[in-house]
Amino acid sequence: MKKILIVVIAVSLFGCKNPENESNRLKVVTTTTMITDLVKNIGGNLIDVEGLMGAGVDPHLYKASEGDVSKLYQANIIIYNGLHLEGKLVEVFEKMESQEKIQVPLAEALDKSNLIGSEYFASSFDPHVWFDISYFKQFAERVAEVLAENDPTNAEFYIKNKETYLQKLEALETEVKATIETLPKEKRILVTAHDAFNYFGKAYDFEVVGLQGLSTATEAGVQDVQRLSQFIIEKDVKAIFIESSVPRRTIEALQAAVLSKGHEVKIGGSLYSDALGDPDTVEGTYLGMFRYNVNTIVNELK
Ligand SMILES: [Zn+2]
């Protein structure tokens, strides 16, 4: 009898460790499309990833649906940006704490002394850190570490995927810097709907001005529009930019204000700020999004 029991225990233990066993696959829930793309690159086909937010979704305003809550309950790991980017999801995540889920706010692992301060967020920091590729590399390191810790059987696979992805990020960094070099320094002024590009500006030497402040939760006022239109005229800025996750009317109001002062500024197209493009398109990946943004900015400001 004892022998049978031991065999049963041994079989069930072996069963738990079997990577083929579907129920043992890590279930990871992610928030923004940037983070979903990253986790899929590192987890590959060995984990299940559910991204809560889709293309064009504004994370500052995003609220969890009932479907999201059930996905969160089923997850082993929740990976998100943090620094209060997902302002309305924080409460939901806090409720999950008693569920013993592993919560990974990626940006909170970055060295705080390198972050850009902001009074607009409860975290006191600007959360749009993914626009510095070197920070996104650190995100990749952290994701691989978390997956490897929680699924040691496949640790090597995750680490290998991370190395491959880091090489792509490095190539992207080199390419982006070379493209930006073609734009004279005095033309590197980026005017957009909200302040998503401060880290981009710091890393790649642009002056960045957002109409709406750091979070889209506050609307731009008439004064902001007047102040910024004056700035555009003084600096002779050629183009201003819409963002995929912010309504275009804010930037159109700014263009109208510049026109009313007898000057002209064009709308240089739409940039991806807080969300990637549609899935199954090149801009639906972090690498494609970054390349698209930089090419658009440089071509329009030339
Ligand atoms: Zn934002």
From TrEMBL:
The keyword Signal applies. Keywords: Coiled coil, Metal-binding, Signal, Transport. It is found in: Cell envelope. It comes from the Bacteria. GO terms for molecular function: metal ion binding. Pfam families: ZnuA. InterPro entries: AdhesinB, Bact_metal-bind_prot9, Lipoprotein_PsaA-like, ZnuA-like. PANTHER family: HIGH-AFFINITY ZINC UPTAKE SYSTEM PROTEIN ZNUA-RELATED, METAL-BINDING PROTEIN HI_0362-RELATED. This is Manganese/zinc/iron transport system substrate-binding protein.
